[in-house]
Design brief:
heterodimer, A: 12 helices, globular, B: alpha+beta, 11-stranded mixed beta sheet, 3-stranded antiparallel beta sheet, about 25% helix
Chain lengths: ~325, ~575
Amino acid sequence: MFTYTLRRILIAIPTLIVISFIIFALLDLAPNDPTGNLPMTISPEVREKIRLSLGLGEPLHVRYFLWMKQFFVNEPLNIIEQVFEVSIGDSENRLRVQSWATRSPVVDLIVERIPQTLWVVGMSYVVGILIAIPIGVISAYKQYSWFDQLGTFISMVGFSVPTFFTGVLLIIIFSVNLQWFPSIYDTNHKVTDWASFGFQVKQMFLPVLVLALYNAAQLTRYMRASMLDNLGQDYVRTARAKGMSEKVVLLMHVLRNSMIPVVTVIALSIPQVFSGAIITEQIFRVNGLGQLLIIGIQGADIPLVQTLTFIFAVLIVVFNLVADILYGILDPRIRYD
Amino acid sequence: MKKSLLYSAIGAATLASTSFAPAAFAERGSDGHINIIYWQAVSILNPYLSGGTKDIESSSLIIEPLARYDESGNLVPFLVEEIPTVENGGISEDLKSITWKIKPGIKWSDGGDFTADDVVFTAEYCMHPEGGCQQAEKFSDVESVEAVDPLTVKISFSVAKPFPYGPFTGGESPVIQKSQFADCLGTKAPECTDQNFGPNGTGPFHVTSFKANDVISLEANPNYRDPAKPAFATMTFKGGGDAASAARAVLETGEYDYAWNLQIDPTILTQMESAGKGKVVSAYGTSVERMMVNMTDPDPALGDKRGTIEGGAHPFLSDPAVRKALSLAIDRATIVEIGYGSGGQPTCNVLPAPEIYASTANDDCLVQDIDKANQLLDDAGWARGGDGVREKDGVKLNILYQTSTNAVRQDTQALVKQWWKEIGVDAELRNIDGAVFFGGDQSSPDTFQKFFADIEMYTNNFNGTDPENYMGSWACDKIPSPANNWLGSNMPRYCNAEYDALLAEMAKTSALEERGEIAKKLNDMLMQDGAIIPLVHRGRVSAHANSLVGVKHNAWDSEMWNAADWTRAK
């Protein structure tokens, strides 16, 4: 197990380097231009000067190595400095990856966005899991009952209907007609007491509902399939024959075994929490990491998009490894090496 | 018992007296909070480092220019006593210098005094060769800016400027504080993140927190020159999402008080307005959605000479009859009705406003006339082939018609294609992502400067009210070509010696009426020659809550230009 983990980590490093180069080259070679979205009143000569001031004059490999240095050396140093409150080297003048639109360090922008991303998208994932597991268990136990059919129907709907439709539909029903919930998320809101916590729940309700529906749909199906697999096994018959109650059989034995594949699916989907639910964030103006990525892409803000995409790639590689290891830990039958 | 009675009596009396106080006596911050939503989120509060309209408009709440344009296009003094003119001696006789007299007693939001040194510094900041200043156009031909005394600024130009109101007027060139931005000159400009995200200003609001591409929190500037303004104590300036949900937030749910730039289907907007919570306002500036006609040949077979004067004239668009027929076949009223609603008007001029520059000589284009278009083409020898497409000497009227990706533009393209089919012209429609089309990337063949198509459609406008620079975009030396890295503004590749001569004359004319006449002539020349086919005079469409009073929707400057005067209806 240990050698397996070590081997996977060592392979991850060249993988990430290749990914970083592909991301960098693809975005750089794309025919996008950061001055494209500026108003027409800016003359072409001024646009050229702007392009040069953004560093677009240098050749590809120079910019790639500069970016690698900024990402792998400068930013970690900055983080260490901030966490431990020390000063390493010439921290004032250290080159940081800067967004072209805001002219501020990309990492600062990302850190600013993490609270709302975690609150809304993270919470929706938790809610989705909490909804999906009981529904999956009951659907499998009472296969083909009305509950199962209803659960299947809701899963299909939740999976097929796009979030930009459910989001807007919920806004029309709950914000415009019923006026129960706000349609725009306030990222400045601080939770200090019960009243402000109540408001936070109110403004989170609609986006979390939209996303949880989508996530739960997927997980219910996995849970149900896994449970059905296990319910037909011999050990279940043995447990019942030993005289254990249905509840014990279901929750202690079958559920635990069924959770193994589901846990790995959940672990694999965690990077999606960070890439954010791009569309839902736009609709409700949650302004998290997904919206940051979209704004970067539309504005051809290459450093921002490169850094964000690479961070997502790192998260995916890491969580892939976590999922594999978790699978090995949870299931004693699986042994690597 | 008696004491409590006495106290309650006093309390009642005080209450009664305050309730009879005059309601019109507003004071700073008395109207509480205001919420504004711009569906393009603000990235930076320094308009010199970002040309984006949203950044210019949001920063206009905080930093101000010396003078602004009001909703009718007139210059109004903000930080100065009066607008300098030749009559009052503010502009020199030789038109080479202008002197602004600053109002005494103005303070920055951090308490410092506003002096002419700040104005001089701002000029240095933007004219710095390595600063990458996005508003360098405003300072063109400026030779020097000097502080004659702490309240007087003199700007000297290298040539005679009949319209010297470029620097420090309008939202694009506000004055920034010298003491705050002192270390931010040249290449250091983008590194001053704190200053860029929270400039000190003379405007009615100042920043308390800035989240880039997300939301700005502002509060009333404690050192603002009018103690009774602004009426609002705090403001939230939110960004992100799309125009339709922004309109919904103001007109249907009432969560926000002002939404900017609502480019959505006009029927949806009217329907939202009928909810009764808000009002849609539109203002017309100089934006015209127009078609550029390519006078050169974009044939790929020409290789490097493609789209250049050297490659030769266009095979069929060089025929004036064809250009005229194409324009006659278009029903502009239908385009406006379907795509723009109250936010557009049909137009036959590329220079539609202000009024003194608006020509009436071309208005026959407002009426669609398919028969006359067919007649013109028949007379010019373009006969219909077997497939219905006209041809002459082996050249077929196949047009590649390109524009940016935008629902309204694609609707317009579909309508135009249909009308052109009726006159025997076949159109191939193409749309390109906005960032690529308008980007000017050298390596991309799809930019609007390279114009590797026959007709392209987009909107252009100019800042302020003086059209001289704008009409200069169609001079012969502004043609984009490989020689100047395709950095030109004359997309139709129009080259007319008479036009250039008129431009030179305008540069020497200072009387406003005469400038107006020349501008009209320049416009008419372009229209009669058919180099540009104008379609829609576009306005800005915004919405505000009914309870928000004092909004004067302005197309000539920032929409937030008079936010200091806004109040909440009682």
